């Protein structure tokens, strides 16, 4: 593993299936490919174990964290390859009636360094008839999570979280140099917003953004956007996938975080403020500012 201020990051782009076993086989193959190309840190997409829209089928194949065979296999793989392996998320059993969408950061010894439950649920009706109700099956998380890598601190998020910039600002203010957004964006929303949102999260926080994505037409007939991205703190795209499964790598120079934050020190300039209410009268038509 590289020491010092640089390391190699790899985004694993998948097309997860309906069942955990073939999805695990796909994931292991791509992670091995990433490690063979010199990756020190590897990120997989959201729901790396299965993509099930049918509630009955989903719960038939869910396992609790302590029993999940995919997680056990990925922990063993991280130890074998001596890499930091970040499983973007696994669908796991939370209770008899609820699942959880949980991300895992695994160290090179196979131990779990951190886990994060997706906070924001994807409940949306898209033009053209696509509709998703993540909250119907999943229990949302309540806590932001940050962890340490040898090269700096990393903030864990998942997919739809990217539309809530306050989460990323909180992670950056807590010391994160890297922000992770493993995702399963729909093709429609991805075409419209994927690059813009991710570059914005990088630029406004002076952070690297790692976004491994699901890609293509899945067995459940859902089409995901792909285009896994590695973005530098100034907003440059360092690596990008297409619409097929694969591995996409970039060399990460951590000094770029400090360079970007010195050039635009917005993390130091944040202010708390009130919002004027015109209905309350002219005397209230101003912002009330205070220190952050």
From TrEMBL:
Belongs to the carbon-nitrogen hydrolase superfamily. NIT1/NIT2 family. The keyword Transmembrane helix does not apply. InterPro entries: C-N_Hydrolase, C-N_Hydrolase_sf, Nit1/2_C-N_Hydrolase, UPF0012_CS. Residues 7-254 form the CN hydrolase domain. Keywords: Hydrolase. PANTHER family: DEAMINATED GLUTATHIONE AMIDASE, NITRILASE-RELATED. GO terms for molecular function: hydrolase activity, acting on carbon-nitrogen (but not peptide) bonds, in linear amides. PROSITE patterns: CN_HYDROLASE, UPF0012. This is Amidohydrolase.
């Amino acid at each position: 593993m590289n020491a010092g201020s640089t390391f190699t990051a790899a985004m694993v782009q998948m097309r997860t299936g309906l069942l955990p076993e073939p999805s695990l086989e796909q994931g292991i193959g791509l992670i091995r490919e990433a490690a063979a190309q010199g990756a020190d840190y590897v990120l997989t997409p959201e729901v790396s174990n299965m993509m099930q829209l049918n509630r009955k089928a989903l719960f038939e194949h869910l396992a609790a964290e302590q029993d999940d065979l995919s997680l056990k296999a990925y922990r063993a793989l991280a130890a074998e390859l001596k890499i930091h392996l970040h499983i973007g998320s696994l669908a796991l059993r939370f209770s008899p009636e609820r699942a959880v969408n949980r991300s895992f950061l695994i160290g090179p010894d196979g131990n779990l360094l951190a886990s994060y439950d997706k906070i924001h649920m994807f409940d949306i009706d898209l033009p053209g008839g696509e509709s998703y109700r993540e909250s119907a099956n999943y229990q949302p998380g309540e806590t932001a999570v940050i962890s340490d890598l040898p090269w700096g601190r990393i903030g864990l998020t998942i997919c739809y979280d990217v539309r809530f910039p306050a989460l990323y600002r909180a992670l950056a203010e807590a010391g994160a140099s890297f922000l992770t957004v493993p995702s399963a964006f729909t093709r429609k929303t991805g075409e419209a917003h994927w690059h813009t949102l991710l570059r914005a999260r990088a630029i406004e926080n002076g952070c690297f953004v790692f976004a491994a994505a699901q890609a293509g037409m899945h067995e459940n007939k859902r089409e995901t956007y792909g285009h896994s991205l590695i973005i530098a703190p100034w907003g440059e795209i360092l690596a990008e996938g297409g619409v097929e499964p694969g591995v996409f790598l970039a060399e990460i120079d951590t000094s770029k975080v400090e360079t970007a934050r010195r050039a635009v020190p917005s993390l130091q300039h944040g202010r708390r403020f009130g919002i004027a209410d015109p209905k309350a009268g002219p005397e209230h038509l101003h912002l009330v500012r205070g220190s952050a």
